[in-house]
Specification:
CATH topology of the domain at 1-145: Thrombin, subunit H
Structural class: mainly beta
Largest sheet: 4 strands, antiparallel
Radius of gyration: 19 Å
Distance between the termini: 20 Å
Strand order of the largest sheet: 1-2-3-4
CATH class of the domain at 1-145: Mainly Beta
Helix content: under 10%
CATH architecture of the domain at 1-145: Beta Barrel
Length: 303
C-alpha cells in the first residue's frame, strides 16, 4: 500500500459512497457499520501522526474535495464523524472510533457538509439551515435558518455560506454579512482564501472564477479567470483551487484525465494517464478514483 493511501481516512472517506455510487457500485452504510477497510484500520498510528499541526486543524473545518462530495465525513483524534441525509436513505449524525464497530448517535437531523473545528461540528440540515453541535452531542443549535443553503465552509470564527447569496456568518450565529449577490454555482475554499464560480453572459456565455477576501469587511472581490466555453472547459464539479492552481477533470479534451492550470489561465498540465473522478487534495497529495467499472482509490504527489 502506498504511503499516500494512509492519509485517506482524513480526506477521502466520502469516496466510498459518493464516488462508487456514480459508477453503479454503491456501498450503502448504515449506522454502526464499519466505515474503514481492514487495511486502513491497521494504520491508526500513522493517522494519528497526521494531527501534529494543531493550529491548522483547529482553524479549518473541512477540505475542498470533501465539501465537493457533500461533506459527509470528518476525522479528529481517532474519531470518525459521519452524517446521513435523504440522499443516503436516512438521517442522523454519528461518531465512532476507528478501531470500534459501534457508533454513537449525536443528532437526528439530516446531515450534509460537516465542518469540524475545535469541539464543534457545523453542518447543513437539508431544507432547514445551518447548525452546530458539540462533538459529545450536546448544545445542538440552529445558527441560521436558510432553506436554500447549498454549502458551508468554516475557517476560524467565520462560516462562509453559499445560498441564494454568498454571506458569512459568525460561528455562534451572532452576525450575518452579505458578501456577494452574484449567482454562484460553486465555492472553492483554499485554507483562508475563498474562490467562487459564476456563469455570466458577456460577449458570449462563459464561466468566471473570482477570488474573494472574505475575512475583511467589506469583503473585496477580484475577477481571476474568464473561461471561454468554446476553448477551455472547467467543470463545476470536481474542481479545486489550491496555491494558485486550478485542479480539475478535463472531460472535453483529455478524456476525463486530471489537469491543472494556473488561476490566470496559463500553464495547463495533465497529471494522470487515466480518467478519474472525485478529486480531493490534502497535504501535497491529490486523491481520486479511477473512472472505471471497478473503482480503486489512487493518490498522486502534486509535484
Amino acid at each position: 500500500m502506498k504511503k499516500g493511501i494512509l492519509r485517506l481516512l482524513i480526506v477521502a472517506l466520502s469516496f466510498f459512497t459518493i464516488g462508487c455510487s456514480s459508477m453503479n457500485n454503491t456501498i450503502t452504510l448504515k449506522p454502526g457499520d464499519a466505515l474503514i477497510s481492514p487495511e486502513i484500520k491497521g494504520i491508526k498510528n500513522n493517522i494519528d501522526q497526521m494531527d501534529e499541526n494543531k493550529s491548522h486543524v483547529e482553524l479549518i473545518g473541512s477540505t475542498a474535495g470533501n465539501l465537493d462530495n457533500f461533506g459527509y465525513y470528518a476525522y479528529k483524534d481517532g474519531w470518525v464523524y459521519y452524517g446521513l441525509d435523504q440522499l443516503r436513505n436516512g438521517k442522523g449524525l454519528y461518531k465512532k472510533r476507528i478501531d470500534d464497530e459501534k457508533a454513537i448517535k449525536l443528532s437526528d437531523n439530516s446531515i450534509r457538509y460537516i465542518n469540524l473545528v475545535g469541539d464543534w461540528i457545523y453542518y447543513i440540515s437539508f431544507k432547514e439551515g445551518i447548525y452546530r453541535i458539540k462533538t459529545d452531542g450536546t448544545e445542538e443549535t440552529l445558527l441560521c435558518e436558510d432553506k436554500n443553503i447549498k454549502n458551508i465552509y468554516v475557517y476560524g470564527d467565520w462560516i462562509m455560506c453559499h445560498s441564494d447569496e454568498l454571506y458569512k456568518l459568525k460561528t455562534d450565529g451572532s452576525k450575518k454579512i452579505v458578501v456577494s449577490n452574484k449567482k454562484i454555482f460553486k465555492i472553492m475554499p483554499d485554507k483562508n482564501k475563498l474562490y467562487f464560480m459564476t456563469f455570466e453572459v458577456e460577449n458570449g456565455a462563459r464561466k468566471v472564477i473570482y477570488e474573494i477576501d472574505w475575512q475583511k469587511t467589506p469583503s473585496r472581490t477580484k475577477k481571476l479567470l474568464e473561461i471561454d466555453m468554446k476553448t477551455l472547459v472547467i467543470p463545476t464539479a470536481d474542481t479545486i483551487i489550491q496555491d494558485g492552481w486550478i485542479y480539475y477533470i478535463d472531460y472535453k479534451t483529455e478524456n476525463g484525465r486530471i489537469a491543472k492550470i494556473k488561476v490566470d489561465g496559463t500553464e495547463k498540465i495533465i497529471l494522470t494517464d487515466q480518467p478519474a473522478t472525485n478529486l480531493n487534495i490534502k497535504d501535497g497529495w491529490i486523491y481520486y478514483l479511477e473512472a472505471k467499472e471497478e473503482p480503486k482509490i489512487e493518490d498522486k504527489k502534486i509535484e
